[in-house]
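Record type: monomer structure entry
Structure origin: computed from sequence
Chain ID: A
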Amino acid sequence: MKWPAAVALLLASLTACGSSSEDAAGDRTLTVFAAASLKDSFSEIAEQFEAENPGVTVRLSFAGSADLVAQVEQGAPADVLATADERTMRGAQDDGLVEVLDSIGSNRLEIATPPGNPAGIRSLADLAGRDVQVVLCAPAVPCGAAAHRVEKIASIDIEPVSEEQSVTDVLSKVAAGEADAGLVYVTDVQTAGDSVDGVPFAESAEVVSTYPIASLSRSDESALAQSFVDFVATGPGQDVLRAAGFGPR
C-alpha cells in the first residue's frame, strides 16, 4: 500500500523501544502514536511493558497531537493513540477510529525561558510586552489551544514570533535561546532540566489539559493494544507519569 507522504514520513520516524536483540526475538509488534509531551514517559513505560510481555516490541511515534490524529485518519497503521487533550482526540472518535477512551493524567502550562531568564520574565502578562519574543504552539495544537485560553483569562494578547506544531518544538527554540520565552507544559520544563528555567503563573490552574488514550478499532492487535492502554491508565504507567510531573487523571 502506498501511504500519503505525510504518513510515510511519520512511519519512517517510528522507533522500537526495545534493544535490537529484543526486536529480533519479538514476534508481536504494537505501534503507539503519542503526543510529543509524552515522549520521555512513554519511552520508559514501553520498556516496562515489553519487560512484562516477552516477545512484544513497542514501536513509538511522537508528534503534535493534531498531526497524529491526521495520520490515523489517513490510514497510518497505529494500534494505540494518546493525545494531549480531549478536543483533539475527538476527531478520531467522531470518525469511529477509537471507541472507549481512558484518561492517563493531566498537565498545565508553564513559562519556559532560556537559562538565567535573561529577559526577566516574571508573569504571564510579561509575555505581552512589545519587546519580548515569545514562541507558542499553533492554535490547532493542544498546547496552543491552552495558551489561547490563558490569554483570554488574563485578558492579554501575546503576539508570538513563531507558532510551532508541537510543544517540544517550542521548548527546543527556547532552550536554544531563539526566544525570550515560550509556553510549554509543566512536565516539559521538568524534563528539560538545566536547559531552561520555569516560571509558574497563576492562570495556568484554570486551564488543565486531560490526556486521553485509546486503542484503535481497526488494530490487528486489539487485545494487546487494550492491555497497553490499561498498563498506562491504571497500571504501572501511572507511577512513571506522576514522577514526570503529570497530575491526576
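Annotation 1: The domain at 107-206 is CATH 3.40.190.10 (D-Maltodextrin-Binding Protein; domain 2).
Annotation 2: The chain has a mean pLDDT of 91.
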